[in-house]
Amino acid sequence: MSALRSINQDDLRNHNLSVVLDTILRSVEPMTRAELARATGLTKATISLLVQILISSKVLHEADSVSVHYGRPGTSLAVSVGSFCAFGLQINTDGYGFAAVDINGDVIDEQWVDCDMEQLTANEVFDNLNNIVIDSETKARELGYVILGGALALPGVVIDGSILLASPNLGWKNLNLGRYELVKRLNVFAANEANLAAIAQIPGFATQRKNNSIMKPSDSFIYISTDIGIGGAVVRDGHVVYGENGFAGEIGHVSVSLDGPICRCGRRGCLEAFAGRRALVETARIASGCDATKIEAVNVLLERWKSGDEIVVSAVDKAVEALVSVIGSAVNLLDINTVILGGIWQRFGVGLTQRISKELTSEVLCSEAVNVRVLMSEVGGRSALLGAAQVALRRFIDKPLDYIEQSSIDE
């Protein structure tokens, strides 16, 4: 009976610590112990104990005193920097890299390697990625960080966080990720890059919320990842919807033309075959094959589009038309009114979102009563890397006792 009681007490304390951390991370303003008690419904005595554990373990620290409407001024609590971090990893069709992120949301180290992925095997890529991450791990530990693990963004269908079922753009399939040293050492959870990029758009998911975000932690939105190909994710009430097989939101493989070009997935007329980075560069006749995936080709595309090159403008117009069609269908199907664009299309500027919003009025049901917001990602480039780091950090937020030293709990 005593063992069962201990287990239940640990579970309850883990849950309560998680609630406190989650509440602080999702708040724009610093919170005092009294405010935490009101927000969480926990007693002041319980909050005091939990906060002491988090301060002793260097997760939180006391910040400035804040005025209150009654009683003595309270002391606000803030997330500590320099204590805990996690690694976001990504393998994409244009290279591989990592970002080490702490729970304050600061990137403490990052590296990206541009390369021709068609010339490398999966084993070579994982070995190369492992080598650069090991160096960063050493630096992080020398700075005093506890490394909480990692997560990996991949351009394909991932099941159970450990099996890459298929990645047409990489040419990999049925890949058991658990056999790689990097995955084992950092206890890496793998997921589709669009899902992880979508997580990076959710304020306070696992790092301190910034006060300038348009989005709120519980918002719903459709995220469209426009990289070499096109991926997508559905976020409902602040949670990614994965679906029964893990690939809900694969908007890039919705067909917009029954007699359109063949997509790399083998189907005909997919959105990706019109509006993906590679397809757009090739349609604009700027480059082909591997050269079409390079960032230099995108730079040329943008320059020619801005200068009014007819072939490029036509390719972009056709891609936008396909985007509008699929976004409209997704909004009608899911009844979600916010769409966030990431990747290459961010570089076309706010005029693109205004254009898509205007053209959506003819695609969305009851458009006179439905206000669809089309936004550019606030996160910027490499959203999937940051989202992967947040997924790894979230393990700590969900079960702090698994990572906090016993000495901090006993104090």
UniProtKB/TrEMBL annotation:
InterPro entries: ATPase_NBD, ROK, WH-like_DNA-bd_sf, WH_DNA-bd_sf
Top-level division of the source organism's lineage: Bacteria
Gene3D superfamilies per UniProt: 3.30.420.40, Winged helix-like DNA-binding domain superfamily/Winged helix DNA-binding domain
Family: Belongs to the ROK (NagC/XylR) family.
Protein name as it appears in the record: NagC-type Transcriptional regulator
